[in-house]
Amino acid sequence: MNEKGARIFLIGFSLLALLILFQQFFHPIKLAGLQGAFDAGVPPQFTAPLWFEGKYQQQTDHYLKYNTAFNGELVRLRNQVDYSVFGNINTILTLGKEKYIFDPNYISAINGTDLLNDSIKSGKIQAITHSKIILDSLNVPLLVCIAPNKAGYFQEYLNDSLNVSENTNRIFFDSLFKSLNVPVLDYDKWFIALKDTSSWPLVPKYGAHWSTYGAFFAADTLMSVLQTLGGKKMASFYLTDIDISTKPRYTDDDYLASLNLMMKWKSPAMAYPRLQFADGYKPNALIVSDSFIWNFYDLEILQNCFSQQSHIRYYNKSTFDNQKNNKGIAGQIKLSDIENRDFVIILSSDPSLKDLGFGLFESISKLRLNE
To answer: What is the pLDDT of residue 22?
Structure first.
């Protein structure tokens, strides 16, 4: 490189560095940044012990990795090039045919590669069996709901044929709950049965959960089952209208965020029900669920069909009320948490079966009824 070229390079590099510094401190340009679930870190606080232990340097490196100006935009540019040129997505997700997106954990749940070992199964059998005895003594019905598995529902869009195993966690728990006479609401089988006759997608192309439209059907069935189990006319709802949109709402395209591309993919038309609620008994329920529960909030099912005393334990770690207010960390289960409930409801997707109940059954099984 000649002297003139070196000078131009140095000036250009200096201007770029100044732009990054100016953006870092004054934020004149609104940036999209990165989306999805990741730990962006927090600005590290300098202390002598952290410095000499090397932790301050590690925290600073992690923080700057995700918070340096234009980092997100450069990552999105790289991801867009990788997809446009090579057809790759830089994420743990799997890109299927016609841009259908899958979580490989759902595939593992069907082919049995995430199967629980015998010692864990034995522990689950003891915990669930003892929990059922305690709940029965309190006259609190237990209902287990299995969410739809997208890999099975859209298996024609997988790049490879789906290997359906006869030895999976689902089969194990189905057998266990049948032996204990625990009712199971299997949305997965039901959604597959409805797939060819449903007017709109029950599972979204770009989403992780049931679609908002699918959640409407799921909630309707749930209230009917609770009415049968409880022997009371429950609060209900009915469909008044449906909005059709190619702009996904709620969680209907939540996988797209983690792709972090420059250009967002066009979604097929999705259905969004408008509901009218009717009076009836609002059950006091303890619900332990993974992320499939959020669509019930989006449709205002929990707000209008469950009592204010109901508690929703998200992964049995955080507690929410029926209005979606975060009530803090879910502590250890106490007898008062389950007695006087109308129902204990478990809502679980296939991958979550590896820890069904997220410790709830283990906690209930240790309770003493005279405490």
So the answer is: 44
